[in-house]
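Our preliminary data section would be incomplete without showing what the modeling component actually yields. Below, a chain of 82 amino acids is followed by its predicted structure, encoded as tokens that our downstream tools consume directly.
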Amino acid sequence: MNLHDDIAAVAYELYEARGRIPGWDLDDWLDAERIVLAKHAGQEIEEPEEEDGPEETAAAAGEQAKRAERTEAEENQEAGFD
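Predicted structure:
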């Protein structure tokens, strides 16, 4: 397999581990790149934590999105973009 195929395989594994929830393709790809490139460099890395199930993963993703939105709103407020 080549590097691209390795990354694609790991990204798909991450997608499946997440419960096949759509909308995380870029995150899964970037995590897979990091994992595969670290393996090829001979480094040990910490795998992304897996949640107990899709409901917990979706809830965590929702909370993360809320924090991101809140942070962006706070930044806009501080910059005077109300």
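The mean pLDDT is 76. Helices lie at 3-17, 25-40, 54-79. Preliminary results of this kind motivate Aim 1 of the renewal.
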